[in-house]
Every structure is written in C-alpha cells, then in structure tokens.
Amino acid sequence: MIRRALVCLLTFGLVACATPPQSSSPSPQAASEPATTPVAETPAETSVEAIPAAPEPVDLTPVPFEIARADFVRDTAARYGIDPGYIESVLAQAQFRDDIVSLMSRPAERVKPWSEYRPNFITAARIDGGRAFMARHQAALQRVERQYGVPAEVIVAIIGVETSYGGFTGKHRVIDALYTLGFRYPRSGNPERAAYEHRRERFFRDELAQLFALGREENLDITALTGSYAGAMGLGQFMPSSYREFAVDGDGDGRRDLFKNFDDVFASIANYFRKKGGERGGWVPGGAVVARAELQPGFDEFNPQTWTPDYTLADLAQRGYRPLEPVAPDATATLVSLEGSTGKQYWLGFQNYYAITRYNNSKMYAMAVHQLSQAIAGKEIPPA
C-alpha cells in the first residue's frame, strides 16, 4: 500500500498505503484484529528510483468537467460493459473532497536519512505486533508460503508497514478519493509539472473506472469502501487495478476479499510479489534479499538510478564494492546506499529486494520491510 516526497504512489497502479490514523480505532472495513500501535507516518517515498517520464501529451488544454465526466461515463460503460445509468447513479453520490486535494498537494518533506526513517517503521511494538499476528495466522501463512514461496514474515511485514496489521486501513471513501483525484487533481501552476500532473489525473481517473469493474466482479458496494486518500484498500492497500490483477481467492469461497478474509489477503500479497516485475520477474523462492557490502578506499560512490539488479559481482567490484557476507558467485544485484547513524551503509540488493520495491519503489521502504520481516522472524538486524 505508501508518500511524502511523491505521496506513496509513484509506482503507478500498484498499491498505496493508508494515511496516518487520527485515533487508534480500527477502520470498520478492516479485518477484526486487535488494534496495535498506530502507524507513525505513511511509508515515505524517499529515494525513489528514476522512472522514465511518459511522453508528454500533445494537448494539455484542460477539458471542462462536464465533458470529461460524460466521456468517463461513456468510456467506462463501453470498456467494462457496465450500464451507464448505474455509473451515473454512483457518481452522483461521490463528493469532491478538499482535504484529499490538500493531502495530495502537500509540499514534499525533506528526504530523511535512513537513521531517521527506519525508527518510524521498526519499533518494539511493531515487531511484537507482527509476531503476535503471525502466531494467530500461522497455519494460513504457512500454506501461502508453501504455495507461493514468499516467506510468511515478509507478508506480515507488508501488512505491518501498510496498515499496522489491519489496525488502520484508511478513513476516506474510495469513491470520493478517486473521483476527486481523477477530475480535480491538484495543479501547481508550474509548466514543468503540467504533463506529470495531467498523467496523474488520468491515472486516478482510470483507477476510478477500474473500481467500477472491480465492484461488478467482486459484488462490492463501491460507495461503501474506505481506504487511503489515494484510493488504496484493504490490509495490503491495493489500488483497484492491482486488486483486479493480483488479488486471488485464497480459501476457495469464490470471492477475493482483501478487507476481511485473511486467506485472500495473504495469498494476494504473495501473488503480487511473485507476478509483479514485468520481464524482470518477481520474488524468487529461497533467494536472498540483501547482503552488506563495503566500498574500498579510493573509489567514488555509485548510485544506480533504478533498483533492477543488473550488476554482476565483477561489475560492482570494478566500482570498488565488496560483499561482507557470502554471496552466490553468479548473483546479480543493485547497489543500495543508506545514511546510517554511524555513517554510510552499503548493501547489495538482489532480485527479491527488487520485488519489494515493486510494492513501493522507495529503497528505504524496501529495506524497512525486509528488516522488519527479519526482526519478526527472530533474526538479528543491524542498527539503523
């Protein structure tokens, strides 16, 4: 599920985390789990990979709302075979929300170093909460781990970071969030951001259309769903497109319920890890996630622009990096640099590290999820 620099949703169409709770009361749509310590803040999009910009649209002239809305109804009805009258009736219940516009248009916070970022997500309460959650759902998590090859503690860590183990899945109506951002995405007035802001509005408008398709497929009352201010839902904070593409029926009851059915939630997160990644691929069962490394004296620091593990150990050795723990000789990795409390930390990030970044493309988010999973599993983790 996510944003401070680019609002927890830079990986278009994937997942987006819930906004921080204002109280510790669980969302009424969350699965019935004991409340845990609320999320201190959403997973910040700090140190994101460089994603090539989409081609700038030929015409950025704003389309009047009435025309854009009518086009949306017509196109969504044709695309998904949905009665346009039903679409109109649902949109009539949607509300433009100024608070959602404000949340999406907040100025970016300074990029926090790892030493400040990690303590927000790896705490004694979150580790203990994760262990208790894993113990309660041990049988279901073990089934999913056997089927998909994604460790139970990784699935639990995702839920812990995204929604505090279901304690807070978001308070905004999804229909309002996507309607607001799909038709009134905030504009900065900066010409250099105009194409980006146009694409973002189109992205959210497409997610709104996919919400209608999802509602029909899963027999959901889409006017009653709640989630993050960006429209992400459930314990794993899936956007509608990700829900449709990656959610699975984990218990064979004929439904894919990411709000209350833990079997479906666990299997869907694991399926996402296995299948999201394009040609590069997703999670590799049994594969390593990261390994500590050091930079030899006399070499300049290397900062890759993406998290794809494209570099052989020989490539990295030529750049001055040497692993500090055993690594398969044929491994490929990316190089992850973090500002730790005692100085720079260097890590080799393998294919499974890349798989975590497909959930949220921040290098620090991926490392936080990995280290939280290790702590939940009872393994020692290094200091921040």
TrEMBL record:
Q: Could you state one GO biological process linked to this protein? A: peptidoglycan catabolic process
GO terms for MF: peptidoglycan lytic transglycosylase activity
Q: Where is the active site?
A: 162
Q: Which InterPro entries match?
A: Lysozyme-like_dom_sf, Lytic_transglycosylase_MltB, MltB-like, SLT_2
PROSITE patterns per record: PROKAR_LIPOPROTEIN
Give the transmembrane ranges.
none
Leader peptide range in chain numbering = 1-18
- Annotated region Disordered: the residues are 20-46
Q: Where is the Transglycosylase SLT domain?
A: 68-374
User: What UniProt keywords are attached to this protein's entry?
Assistant: Signal
Q: Which domain of life is it from?
A: Bacteria
Q: What name does UniProt use for this protein?
A: Membrane-bound lytic murein transglycosylase B
> What is the native source organism of this protein?
Pseudoxanthomonas wuyuanensis
Q: What is the lineage of its organism?
A: Bacteria, Pseudomonadati, Pseudomonadota, Gammaproteobacteria, Lysobacterales
